[in-house]
Amino acid sequence: MRKNVLFLALLLPLLAGCAKQPEPLSCTPGQEQRLVVYTSHKEEVYTPIVREFEERTGIWVDVVSGGTNELLQRLQQEADAPKADVMFGGGVESLESYQDCFSPYICREAADISLQFQSESGCWTPFSALPVVLVYNTKLVAPEALTCWKDLESPVFRGKIAFADPQISGSSYTALVTRIQAGGAEACLTGLCAALDGKQLDSSGAVLTAVADGSCLVGITLEETALQHIAAGEDIALVYPSDGTSCVPDGSALVKGAPHGENAKRFLDFTVSADVQALVGERFCRRAVRADIPADSSLPPLSELTLVSYDVEWASKNRDRILSDWAFLLGEVPS
């Protein structure tokens, strides 16, 4: 019995020592090594870029994803106490419309960016060049039935056009302005609106799904999105409208009062580096904005497309009015 008592007396301190948990090691970096990115890019686009940036810099990146307009409105609401450092994604006219939320910044390799994609004010940094295209279901629509914007107004397509709400989708707003400039007047939106028959989708990603599954016959989208679905073997073909399309870049911007401003600048520099811009073409079916990174040889050169003179500044200044007019038109169309 005495041996048992002695044994317990020796054992209890050891058990107590084992039960005591070691102090947790802190693996979260300090504020000087952090970055908060708001992005409207799809996960398959932003994830490899963010991971590579983290690997190269040691900076810890927190990503908040959402729709372009949703995130821009959030930035506006947070203006007095910014939480984000960078807005990564969104058509540059949308970024320009919210320029009060951003600080001008000219990226380190700006000289290598094609002049047509540069921001004069430095409000935004371009990321990729994105032609607007029309798409159709190859099993349900003959190629000759869709060649231009005007063809969308055919009775055959009424109510069967996949188009995302431009109040939500920045690319849809770009498409609206492209249609205006291709048609020569804002009145041409009346025909497009009537062709939609009151139907819009909640996201730009839903456009290709609707065309591929046949619930819609045709759609309005961006070249890169169409190319990705075509590469996946879906029954989709794309058309560059013969009456004019645009090639507007999406971009990134430095948030005014960014908590981690220097890290944000490093990220903006990284997005237009030669390595990332090569990835833009090789992996994301997009066109690089750098002059020294050629487009995929399978894509038609921009010089062969009928391009409208897309005025980013005009599209930015008139954004609220055009969206308001569009909503009014859509309300007049019977559902």
What are the SSEs and their pairings?
Elements: H1 2-19, E1 34-39, H2 43-57, E2 60-65, H3 68-77, E3 86-91, H4 92-97, E4 102-103, E5 125-137, E6 161-162, H5 170-183, H6 188-196, H7 205-212, E7 218-222, H8 223-231, E8 236-239, E9 247-255, H9 261-271, H10 274-283, E10 287-288, H11 312-317, H12 319-332
Parallel strand pairs: 1-2, 1-3, 6-7
Antiparallel strand pairs: 3-9, 4-9, 5-7, 5-8, 5-9, 5-10
Tell me what the structure shows.
This protein is α/β, with parallel strands linked by helices and 335 residues long. It contains 12 helices and 10 strands. Strands 1, 2, 3, 4, 5, 6, 7, 8, 9 and 10 form a 10-stranded mixed β-sheet that branches. The termini are far apart. The model is unreliable at 1-26 (pLDDT under 50).
Please mark out the parts with pLDDT under 50 across 5 or more consecutive residues, or reply none. Answer: 1-26
What would the average pLDDT be, to the nearest integer? 89
Q: If you compute it from the alpha carbons, what radius of gyration comes out, rounded to the nearest whole angstrom?
A: 25 Å
Strand content: 15-25%
Q: How many angstroms does the end-to-end distance come to?
A: 90 Å
Compute the number of strand runs: 10
